[in-house]
Specification:
407 residues; mainly beta; Porin; 16-stranded antiparallel barrel; two-stranded antiparallel sheet; 2 helices; 20 strands; 55% strand; disordered N terminus
């Protein structure tokens, strides 16, 4: 981490040391001539390149105010600095490029390296990526930047079912095939993966995001078996994009120094994502659904689910476009998010009754974009959480006002 801070300081100090004129601080152009996919999100961001330096810089920030209460109990008014994310990219050679993404969450409570990879481009259909890669499970994991969304909170299914911004050390292939009105693409990576924290954690349930707390995954594999992540996506210029992804591997340490400890226990995830715009109305619809299956030891209690599922749907409708409050291309949106997560889809062996552990959320929102890269958003969140035994749900209501912006 010291080396990362040194790199950031150097990147900030070089323009000043060279006395670069602010006029030379130019925006790096983005390729808009071809259809963009969710897999392109890592590079499809605004960057600024100071002078003739070989690196480009960018990032985004998001913060908000929140007042929430669960069954009438509240912690009062809260101001939150959700995250500050920095991007650094460089074109090493004509077809070799590097990008890193460093995120500071809740002030500096958590600092994480989300992406740091070198891409070798041989042809549109065959490219090699290695380093810290973002596993392409679903769409949100890759396309998660705050300024792209009309909602303060990230989807529950993407953060509490799947591990949002889930990245690991590894390598793989990706490529695209372009047509006149469509593009088909693929990604396939072998990386380090999960550990046994997914069934041994403070949540007391099957919880894939718990493996994010293991920093050793950037140094070594927990059990020596690679995690496979693959995705295929298809986008049509007039219809939208659909993607199908898979992630699977072994999560337990089944062997140590040649001594057999346990049988191999696997975790498998399938995800379906889509994004489209309704013709004539400019209504944008984005959705994702995931299924999780985990091989749980027989000795574990029923509260650890072997099957999980969940997802979300966002509907965003532009209401007013044009000059607003002095901003020439401002947009006022009305939006709605529907979310559902079931952390335990199993049944009690004794009674055959359904096990609880589920959440339902409805989030109406109003957002204002003075520019395409900045959003101010007002959300009202209603959430119902049902416990393991299926008791009447705990009810949460929250008002959230915040902003997110690239810089």
């Amino acid at each position: 981490m010291k080396h990362l801070f040194a790199l950031l300081l150097l990147a900030g100090a070089l323009p000043a040391a060279a006395q670069i004129d602010p006029v030379l601080l130019r925006r790096v152009p983005r390729d808009t001539s071809r259809l963009q996919l969710n897999m392109d999100a890592v590079y499809n961001r605004p960057f600024a390149q100071p002078g003739r330096l070989p690196v480009a810089l960018g990032g985004y920030v998001e913060a908000n105010y929140q007042y929430a209460a669960t069954d009438g109990v509240s912690e009062g008014h809260q101001f939150q600095m959700r995250r500050l994310t920095l991007f650094i990219s460089s074109s090493i050679a004509q077809r070799i490029k590097f990008l890193t993404e460093i995120e500071f969450e809740d002030g500096t409570k958590e600092i994480s390296l989300e992406f740091a990879s070198v891409d070798f481009e041989f042809s549109p259909l065959l490219n090699v990526r290695g380093g810290v890669v973002m596993n392409p499970i679903g769409a949100f994991n890759q396309n998660h930047d705050g300024p792209k969304w009309e909602f303060v909170d990230r989807p529950v299914a993407a953060t509490q079912l799947l591990p949002a911004t889930w990245s690991n050390v590894g390598a793989g292939l990706y490529g695209k095939k372009f047509g006149e009105t469509w593009v088909v693409a693929y990604e396939a990576y072998l990386t380090n993966g999960f550990d046994d924290q997914i069934i041994s954690n403070a949540e007391n349930r099957t919880f894939l995001p718990a493996s994010k707390r293991n920093p050793d995954r950037f140094e070594e594999s927990f059990n020596g078996v690679p995690l496979l992540t693959t995705k295929a996506a298809l986008r049509h210029r007039r219809v939208g994009e659909v993607g199908l992804s898979y992630m699977g591997g072994i999560y337990n340490k089944f062997e140590d120094d040649g001594l057999r400890l346990d049988s191999r226990r696997g975790v498998q995830v399938w995800a379906l994502d889509l994004a489209t715009t309704v013709p004539g109305s400019r209504t944008a619809v984005t959705g994702e659904w995931a299924w999780v299956r985990v091989n749980i030891p027989e000795a574990y209690s029923p509260q650890y689910g072997r099957h999980q599922a969940g997802g979300f749907v966002d509907v965003v409708q532009p209401v007013l476009r044009g000059t607003q409050l002095g901003f020439a291309k401002a947009v006022l949106n009305a939006a709605l998010r529907l979310e559902y997560v079931d952390w335990n889809r199993d049944r009690f062996a004794e009674t055959g009754g359904r096990i609880g552990e589920e959440a339902l959320c409805v989030v109406p929102a109003v957002s204002w974009r003075p520019t395409a890269q900045t959003v101010i958003r007002l959300n009202y969140r209603r959430q119902w959480d049902r416990d393991f035994l299926g008791n009447p749900p705990a009810r949460t209501a929250a008002v959230q006002l915040g902003f997110s912006s690239y810089f």
